[in-house]
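for the writeup, i need someone to sanity check this before i put it in the appendix. the sequnce is what the collaborator sent (i think, or maybe the updated version? ugh). structure was predicted straight from it, no edits. if anything looks off just tell me and ill rerun, i have time this weekend
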Amino acid sequence: MSVNNSGKNHGSFCHRTRREFLWEAGGGFTSVALAGMLGAEGFLARQAVAADGVTAYANPLAPKKPHFDPKATSVIFLFMYGGPSHVDTFDYKPKLYDLDGQTIPVKTKGRGGERNEGRVVGPKWKFKQYGQSGQWVSDLFPHLATCADDMAFIKSMTADSPIHGSAMLQMNSGKILSGSPALGSWVNYGLGSENENLPGFVVMLDPKGGPISGAKNWSSGYMPATYQGTIMRSKGAPIIDLNLPEGTSRAMQRDLLDALNAQNAEHLASRADNSDLAARISSYELAFKMQQHAPEAVDLSQETEATQKAYGLDNPRTLDFGKRCLLARRLVERGVRFIQLYSGGAHNDDNWDAHADLATNHNFHAGNTDQSIAALIKDLKARGLLDKTLIVWGGEFGRQPTAEYAKGTGRDHNAFGFTYWLSGGGIKGGTSVGQTDELGAAAIEHPFHVKSLHATILTQLGFDPNALSYFYGGLDQKLVGVEHVEPIRQIIA
């Protein structure tokens, strides 16, 4: 599956550019939704002619068939921004307890460079085995522990950068440099959307702010902006600038859109090779439909009191993340392909970046998310949706077994061995693959690169990760890069 996006810009019509026409004809509509979707160049769609000779426009997000039958049709990516400590969450290392406070020879690499010794910080929480599978989970996650048999743990993840910005870009796009499409964009491009009234790729940020590298993490990169992520909020207007401009009725806006489409059709008639405009028309239509349907999708009052309580909406501590998890379930029900939720925002202890006081940091963030994530798994399972919904949990890297500073209990970044877990979507629950050394400093058994995680996600969605491509810059670009990458088959059912 590949696309050649060699669209051309044909300039203006009626001595005005298209942007000028939009502005003069009622510019409020240009901000209806998705500034990138409505304003950026490079949209991709194909023009078609119906039987009656009237020009029709292909929807670039129309559902598409994957390479083979998928085990998952949607993804919910729970991104723990800042880098949770694997040795304090899911990677049990009993030796660390005995070595707590001792300075020992141990090779570590982090943002501060390479060290050959360090003061061990013992885990601040106890571990227990849960479920029939006996998976180890720390006391940080008492609710998630009850879902152990539905989770598959990858305990030997590796990445290329121990720096937040580049590490997040790699986890989201496969590259440490900006400019490449996000994972959600690849899913949007490859599968399209089952819902013509909502975006195919939705991002929900922490109220404390966005991640350090910002919108690059949900950008469509060199793909058309149609495939980029859309920021959706769990309270207030679900999408910024989605509401009707003051003094404008829906009927008036429909008339404006029809007039605009007529002008665009006339412009396109003599420029048959310009695919950008056809996709732009489809984008206008999506924005128009979202005005009516997005508010319903985020109306959590439709949920029972018991469901709201299960997600933690009755507790100020879990209210925000619980709302976003519940909204993610509602979006999956409505056919949204890729949903990403961020836990943690801004800088330092506003996210999982525990450099100084590990216990305070992780108690706070785990306590904000544990109940809601467990409720999401159980709710999807009870509704028969977990089988076709792939849940992914993790951050941009893990953390080291030793203290970063002479005093304190914080840990530096660790990209050489950390943990991810997956659930649902054809994943074999109650399993664990890979291993770090006895201190959790680096992967030593079945090290899996970020690319392997991406290959696993694509495989569950029905794609050969080495065949899903997009033609750009003279090359068939791929999320997993040019080398052949295998999915993590040990956790696939």
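Residues 74-235+298-491 form a domain with the Alkaline Phosphatase, subunit A fold (CATH 3.40.720). The two ends are 26 Å apart (CA to CA).
thx in advance!!
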